[in-house]
Amino acid sequence: MEQEAQHVVSALQDAPLGVIHSCMRFLGRIEDFFAVIDREGCFVAVNANFARAYQSTEELIIGRNIRDIMEEEEFERLFHPYLNECFTGTDVHHSSNFDFPGLDESMHMDVGYYPLFDESGEVHAVLLTFHDVTTFKNMERKLRQLAHLDPLTQMPNLRFIDYQLNKLQARCERQGEGFSLLYIDFNQFKSINDEYGHNAGDQVLVEFGRRLRSTLRRGEFISRIGGDEFLVVVSEQLSEEAGIALQERIKSMLYEPITITSTLKLRVSVSVGMAVWPTDGRDLATLKAIADERMYRDKKPNLN
């Protein structure tokens, strides 16, 4: 349909208005919206889909000014600058969300503005085409979300937290502030998978993620960075005392056993290591390595 619409646009750019008006009935069978607007801003022709989107008919819209069928703010934001540019003889394209009064849901449209020339070579009208790309945009948004989410816990993944860390580091450098990050790793997690199965291990990770999210405070970000490892980022430079308190808060989330089945509840624990920017290091790789080392130092007593 999109290619068919483009062929129609090319054909209509040099056609007389009478021909364009006649073609609108054919264009009603194409899913795209079409409209032709003259220099006074009045509709010369529209197809049925465009009229329907504005809760009207072709007969009632033709002859009306574009400002008559929409709010002034909508006209200035979505139409006016592009119409002005197109009347200079230039093809114009933009993409935006539209809330059409005749449709139930907002639609993301790719809009094309094509100048129509008279016999003297002057632009006497503009052909507007609206192509619905809502499904594509929604899919694009979901793919972006999936790229930044851990599929098991639905928490941000390493890619997303690294992006946030880089932004946070840049802000702290500008403002002379600091931040803290904490590595979290389950103690003897392999034994859970070995003894109770990977499904039980997955349930432990999901429940811990849920408990972490439920206690999240302002300025704290969490992520599952792989396996049984998690990362908490705090957008302030924690003192040693505050860091110990946060580590204890994280560990206390697992004081309550995790229910796997009606007959199985598991008691699990985690080890935590913290590093502070810029006190412990100014680059992220060093900071992560220090937090990881301190986490393993915390883990040693739990291995005995």
UniProtKB/TrEMBL annotation:
Pfam families linked: GGDEF, PAS_4
Transmembrane segments: none
PROSITE patterns associated with the record: GGDEF
GGDEF domain span: 177-304
InterPro entries the UniProt entry points to: Biofilm_reg_signaling, GGDEF_dom, Nucleotide_cyclase, PAS, PAS-like_dom_sf, PAS_4, Rev_trsase/Diguanyl_cyclase
NCBIfam families linked to this entry: GGDEF (TIGR00254), sensory_box (TIGR00229)
Protein known as: Diguanylate cyclase
Native source species: Marinibactrum halimedae
The organism's taxonomic lineage, starting at the top: Bacteria, Pseudomonadati, Pseudomonadota, Gammaproteobacteria, Cellvibrionales
